[in-house]
């Protein structure tokens, strides 16, 4: 697991302080290679690329996690309305939010900050941080 001093300022702002990257700026928004998206801090597997879809919201979106324990869910009222925050189920890093307006089969839209993710490309095994 990366120590706090090994994270970039942007990773600290988002993963530790629950920030959000600007829409349409994330490194993985238009990523189309086959692989696994993982927590940038502890490399916990979160999503497979075949569950990624273009939600048009400006952040990488997925409809299903790798396992039911991949993420932790927290009620979030920070904007004056209810949302569900998602955090890494292993290290508790802030990932983004989940909404009930995604596609079948789950009907969920996991909306992620690219900077909170690491991508392991299946073809080469290369790890890429967001």
TrEMBL record:
It comes from Bisgaardia hudsonensis. The keyword Nucleus does not apply. It is an enzyme of class 1 (oxidoreductase). The lineage of its organism: Bacteria, Pseudomonadati, Pseudomonadota, Gammaproteobacteria, Pasteurellales. Keywords: Metal-binding, Oxidoreductase, Zinc. It comes from the Bacteria. This is Peptide methionine sulfoxide reductase MsrB. InterPro entries: Met_Sox_Rdtase_MsrB (IPR028427), Met_Sox_Rdtase_MsrB_dom (IPR002579), Mss4-like_sf (IPR011057). It catalyses: L-methionyl-[protein] + [thioredoxin]-disulfide + H2O = L-methionyl-(R)-S-oxide-[protein] + [thioredoxin]-dithiol. GO terms for molecular function: metal ion binding; peptide-methionine (R)-S-oxide reductase activity. The keyword Zinc applies. It holds the Pfam family SelR. One of its GO terms (biological process) is response to oxidative stress. One of its GO terms (cellular component) is cytoplasm. Belongs to the MsrB Met sulfoxide reductase family. Its cofactor is Zn(2+). Residues 1-122 form the MsrB domain. Its EC number is 1.8.4.12.
């Amino acid at each position: 697991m990366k120590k706090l001093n090994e994270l970039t300022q942007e990773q600290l702002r988002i993963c530790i302080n629950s920030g959000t990257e600007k829409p349409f700026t994330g490194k993985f928004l238009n990523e189309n290679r086959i692989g696994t998206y993982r927590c940038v801090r502890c490399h916990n597997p979160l999503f497979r690329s075949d569950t990624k879809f273009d939600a048009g919201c400006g952040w990488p979106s997925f409809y299903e996690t790798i396992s039911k324990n991949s993420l932790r869910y927290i009620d979030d009222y920070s904007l004056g309305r209810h949302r569900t925050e998602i955090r890494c189920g292993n290290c508790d890093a802030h990932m983004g939010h989940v909404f009930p307006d995604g596609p079948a089969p789950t009907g969920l839209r996991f909306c992620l900050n690219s900077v909170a993710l690491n991508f392991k490309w299946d073809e080469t095994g290369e790890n890429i941080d967001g």
